[in-house]
Structures are given as structure tokens and as C-alpha cells.
């Protein structure tokens, strides 16, 4: 046999593809795909569904250099190489039996070369034929006793059969042959965890991270362990150290941002996100991440251009459309949200989070039959999901079946008692069911038990503002601003509160500052304009409100305010605008006010 050093891209790619099966099996022991998923609950469904760190993991995983070296040593004209090439092609085409026969034939030509056996074992592993994997790896070990891959594959097969003692032995042997091997090491760490030996797992992963600084896989497993163990500071420290050693890798920075988000450290998340954006301003993952952070912070005017840019940078990325749809939902731009989420589903028709969002948006726009159809489909495969009773509750609200909605939201809270979104939905349903004291009580009780909560405080303050309970609302707004200084939606509502209290000069000063910082935010523009209208500055108000309507064409409140600003200066335009609002069959809270104003103008 002629042996020589040579590169061969196609065969190498085949080995790389096969080796990833081993990585995938390791993750199914089971593990969270990324530590970020674990710590950002309950934001999982509302942020990155295709987390960018997954790309980093795949790019940096080890690809069995020993097997690759053996392939590279084979002459391009050798019979073994030709058979391996054909086998890989057959396996990739789904011709499992034919591919395996060729691998067996290639291996029988020289049992001292384990590469064919490794690929054969991988094919059985992919098919979850674990006994067959063990048969092949035993044979590899007989002819090639120093094959690290054989012991790693045997360990995964044994672990998949729940035989953790044998799995531990195999992985330890692999590490003995190749110390600090990432694949064998991370798998062994998971066996230690299964055997309740977390400290041994931690020590091993720390060593692997130290000796594999460019490989994200060991770090990912270490972060999982630290976060699940409640050692958040250790996770942050490990990430910061890794970032310092890999300053050009943005994936680690994204992971750090998500850990801060999940631990309710929004100022640190914002600071790290901004720093990452400065270093990687054209990276789609980073742009999307920054948009999501601003969205979660309530800074919608900053989130919107970033998320829209992320869609332009990566139009094929499901999460980009998904997150932009979420923003439109928060901005109550339901039509835009539906359009965006439909793009996500066109890219991935089976994407469950997008289906839930679409159902919510359809329910919000009164398309209840379509929402129910999606709900029926989702129930078949997600019966235990907390989002099922939540969605049922939203649909019941749309049907004015508030008592039924309350029952659904309570059911959802039983599944996820620490979800503030569900608490707010329950409160809304109770209030709609004419049980206001109970609804407000739910929110106040939550705040009393969660001193660092932000979302429920904002919601309760908004509701109190709507009831003209200005002092209590102002108290909660102030608390939020202490937790999140500069939060624009709160500053915007605070400006309106001051105007309702009759403090117009203070209100205008604050509203103008808000407008100057976010001139493209339709809600901020609307507030500033409406306060100006209260001050008698109708012409300036109308000018601003026209801008706001162009920014949020679905927002009925802004259109109503524009009509108000046109009274006495352009009654005909005001009446036409009001008629169009009443012609909209959707229910909106200003409908009665619109009808009253139109009647008044018609009588003049």
C-alpha cells in the first residue's frame, strides 16, 4: 500500500459530518443546547430560538484528528480510499446498507487502519443501534487499541443504554490515551453528573476549558453545570476569562449577555450588548441580540431599527423574523407582526414558537377561528406546554368568556408559577370579569414577593394611570426607573401622568426630552403631541401626530388624537378620519369617543 501525506476535502468532510453525530449524542444525555436557554426562561419563547452560540459550538467542535490523519495518509489512488469515498457518498444519500458494506470491505483490507470502523460505528450510532456500535468498537479496540474514537463511541453507546459505569470506563480510557480530548471529556463530565459527582465534573470541565481555549464545547458544558448549580458568578467568571482569551469571538459575548438577562441584570446586559455591538457592528447575530436586549428593556425605539436591520442582514434567518414579529406585537402593530411571523413560518413551517406567536396575533386581531385552528394543531404535539392554556386564555378573552380565560391562565400559572406574563394575563382577565379588586390584588401580591420585578410594576402603574390613581402609579413608575434608569416607555407614561395631574409645563418638558431621544417612536410622538394639544398648541400637535400615524398606521388611538387636533382647523379631514375608524370592524377602546366626536362635528 502506498502511503503519503495528502489532503482530501470530500473524505475529510465526510469524517467531519460523522463526528458531529457523536457531539449530538453527547448533548442528548440530556443537556440544554446552550446555557443561555436555561437562564433566560421565561424569555426562551420570546428571544433567540436559533441561538447564535449554536453556530459557535458547531464551528469549534473537535473532528477526530486521529481518523482524519489516517485518511490523509492514504494515497488518492488506493483501493481503501476509493471505497471509503464511495461509502461516505452512499451514507450521505441515505443508502445505509450499501454504505456499510463498503466500509466493512474497506476495513477488511487493512484492520490496522481504524477509520472505516469509526465511520461504521458512527453510522450505527446515528441509527441508535447501540449494541452494533459496541460490537464494532470492540473490534476496533482489538486491532487498534490506541483508538481514542473507539472508546469515545463505546462510551456514548453505553451511556445511551443507561450503563453509566461502563460509559465512564470507556471515556476515562479515551482521556488516558489522549488527555484533554474535548469530545471524550465533555461526555465523561456528563457521566459524572449522572452519577451525582458534580465536583468531579466541574474539575474536569475546568481543565478542558483551560487546555482547549479555542473550543467552545467544554465551556458550554461548564456554563450549564454552573448555572444549574446556582453558581452564576462562576459562570460569568468563566465566560469573561474565555472572552479575554478569544477577543475575536462574538458568540461568547452573546452568551454573557443572555446570562445577564436571565439573572435580571439588565444594566450589565445592556452594557455588554453595547460593547459587543461596537466591536461587531455588521455581525447579524450581534445586531439581532442587541435588538432583543433593547426590546426586553422596553426601549422599543432602539430595538426596532436593530431588529429590522437583522432581517435585512439575514433574511433567511427564522429568529430574525420571529423577534421582529415579537416587537411588532409589543408595539401593537399586529398586521406587521402577522406579516413578519408568516415569513418565519415560510422559512420553517414546523417552527413551533412562531406558530404560538401567530396564534396570539390572530387572537389579538379578532381572527379567532384561525387562532383556534392553530391551537388544535399545537395541542397535538405540545400538550404539556404552558403556552397551550395561555393561548386558550387569550382566545377566551377574545370571545369575552372571561371566567373561562381566568381558569386557563390559572392552569398555566400552575405549570409555571414564576412567569410574570401569566400573572398579568390573569389579572387582566379578572378585571375584565368585573373582579377588579382580585385582579389588582394579584398584581400587588406579585410585586410584594418580587422586589426586583419590572414588568408587572410597569403594567400595574399603567393600569393605575388609566384609573387616574396618579400617586400610586407614580410610585411604581419611580421604582421602575430606580431599577432601570432611562427606560423610555416609563418616562413616556410619566410625562402623560404629569399632564393628567395638571402639571403641563413639567409634562411638556419631560415629553419633549423623550421625543428628542426617540423621534421615531410613535407612542412617544403621540404623547408629546397630545400634551401639546392640551396646552392649546393644535397646529404643532397635528404635525407631530401625522408623523406618528405614518410610523404606526394600525394604531387607532393615534388616529383619534390626530382627528382631535384637526377640530376647528380642518373639520372635513377630521370627520373623514373618524368615519374610517368607525368603519374598522375591530373592537378598540376609543370607539365610543370616536363616535361622540363625529356626532359633535356632524351637528356643527
Automatic annotation (TrEMBL):
The lineage of its organism: Bacteria, Pseudomonadati, Pseudomonadota, Gammaproteobacteria, Methylococcales. TPR repeats lie at residues 148-181, 284-317, 318-351, 386-419, 454-487. It holds the Pfam family TPR_19. It comes from Methylomonas koyamae. Keywords: Repeat, Signal, TPR repeat. InterPro entries: CellSynth/LPSAsmb/PSIAsmb, PEP-CTERM_TPR_PrsT, TPR-like_helical_dom_sf, TPR_rpt. Transmembrane segments: none annotated. This is Uncharacterized protein. SMART domains: TPR. Residues 1-38 form the signal peptide.
Amino acid at each position: 500500500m502506498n502511503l503519503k501525506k495528502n489532503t482530501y476535502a470530500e473524505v475529510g468532510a465526510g469524517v467531519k459530518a460523522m463526528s458531529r453525530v457523536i457531539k449530538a449524542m453527547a448533548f442528548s444525555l440530556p443537556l440544554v443546547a446552550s446555557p443561555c436557554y436555561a437562564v433566560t426562561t421565561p424569555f426562551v419563547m420570546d428571544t433567540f430560538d436559533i441561538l447564535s452560540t449554536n453556530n459557535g459550538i458547531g464551528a469549534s467542535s473537535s473532528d477526530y484528528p486521529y481518523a482524519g490523519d489516517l485518511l490523509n495518509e492514504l494515497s488518492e489512488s488506493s483501493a481503501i480510499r476509493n471505497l471509503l469515498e464511495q461509502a461516505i457518498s452512499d451514507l450521505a444519500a441515505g443508502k445505509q446498507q450499501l454504505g456499510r458494506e463498503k466500509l466493512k470491505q474497506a476495513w477488511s483490507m487493512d484492520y490496522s487502519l481504524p477509520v472505516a470502523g469509526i465511520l461504521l460505528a458512527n453510522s450505527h450510532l446515528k441509527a441508535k443501534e447501540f449494541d452494533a456500535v459496541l460490537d464494532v468498537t470492540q473490534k476496533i479496540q482489538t486491532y487498534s487499541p490506541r483508538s481514542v474514537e473507539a472508546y469515545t463511541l463505546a462510551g456514548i453507546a453505553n451511556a445511551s443504554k443507561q450503563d453509566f459505569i461502563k460509559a465512564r470506563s470507556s471515556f476515562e480510557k479515551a482521556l488516558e490515551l489522549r488527555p484533554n480530548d474535548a469530545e471524550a471529556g465533555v461526555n465523561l463530565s456528563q457521566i459524572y453528573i449522572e452519577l451525582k459527582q458534580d465536583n468531579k465534573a466541574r474539575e474536569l470541565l475546568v481543565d478542558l476549558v483551560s487546555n482547549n481555549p479555542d473550543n467552545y464545547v467544554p465551556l458550554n458544558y461548564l456554563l450549564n453545570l454552573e448555572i444549574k448549580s446556582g453558581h452564576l458568578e462562576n459562570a460569568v467568571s468563566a465566560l469573561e476569562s474565555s472572552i479575554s482569551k478569544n477577543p475575536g469571538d462574538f458568540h461568547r459575548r452573546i452568551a454573557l449577555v443572555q446570562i445577564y438577562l436571565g439573572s435580571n441584570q439588565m444594566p450589565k446586559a445592556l452594557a455588554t450588548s453595547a460593547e459587543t455591538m461596537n466591536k461587531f457592528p455588521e455581525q447579524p447575530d450581534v445586531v439581532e441580540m442587541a435588538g432583543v436586549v433593547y426590546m426586553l428593556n422596553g426601549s422599543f425605539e432602539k430595538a426596532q431599527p436593530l431588529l429590522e436591520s437583522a432581517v435585512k442582514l439575514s433574511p433567511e434567518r427564522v429568529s430574525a423574523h420571529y423577534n421582529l414579529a415579537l416587537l411588532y406585537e409589543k408595539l401593537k402593530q399586529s398586521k406587521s407582526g402577522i406579516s413578519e411571523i408568516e415569513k418565519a413560518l415560510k422559512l420553517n413551517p414546523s417552527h413551533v414558537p412562531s406558530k404560538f406567536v401567530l396564534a396570539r396575533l390572530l387572537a389579538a386581531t379578532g381572527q379567532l377561528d384561525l387562532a383556534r385552528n392553530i391551537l388544535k394543531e399545537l395541542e397535538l404535539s405540545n400538550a404539556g406546554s404552558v403556552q397551550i392554556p395561555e393561548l386558550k386564555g387569550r382566545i377566551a378573552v377574545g370571545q369575552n368568556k372571561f371566567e373561562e380565560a381566568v381558569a386557563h391562565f390559572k392552569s398555566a400559572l400552575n405549570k409555571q408559577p414564576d412567569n410574570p406574563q401569566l400573572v398579568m394575563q390573569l389579572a387582566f382577565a379578572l378585571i375584565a370579569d368585573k373582579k377588579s379588586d382580585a385582579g389588582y390584588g394579584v398584581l400587588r401580591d406579585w410585586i410584594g414577593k418580587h422586589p426586583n420585578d419590572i414588568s408587572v410594576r410597569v403594567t400595574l402603574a399603567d393600569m393605575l394611570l388609566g384609573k387616574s390613581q396618579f400617586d400610586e402609579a407614580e410610585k411604581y413608575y419611580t421604582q421602575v426607573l430606580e431599577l432601570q434608569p432611562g427606560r423610555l416607555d416609563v418616562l413616556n407614561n410619566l410625562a402623560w401622568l404629569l399632564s393628567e395631574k395638571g402639571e403641563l409645563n413639567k409634562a411638556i418638558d419631560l415629553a419633549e426630552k423623550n421625543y428628542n431621544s426617540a423621534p421615531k417612536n410613535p407612542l412617544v410622538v403621540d404623547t408629546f403631541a397630545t400634551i401639546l394639544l392640551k396646552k392649546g398648541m393644535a397646529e404643532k400637535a397635528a404635525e407631530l401626530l401625522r408623523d406618528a400615524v405614518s410610523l404606526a398606521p394600525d394604531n387607532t388611538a393615534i388616529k383619534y388624537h390626530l382627528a382631535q387636533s384637526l377640530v376647528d382647523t380642518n373639520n372635513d379631514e377630521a370627520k373623514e378620519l373618524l368615519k374610517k375608524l368607525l368603519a374598522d370592524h375591530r373592537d378598540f377602546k376609543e370607539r365610543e369617543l370616536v363616535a361622540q366626536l363625529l356626532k359633535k362635528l356632524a351637528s356643527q
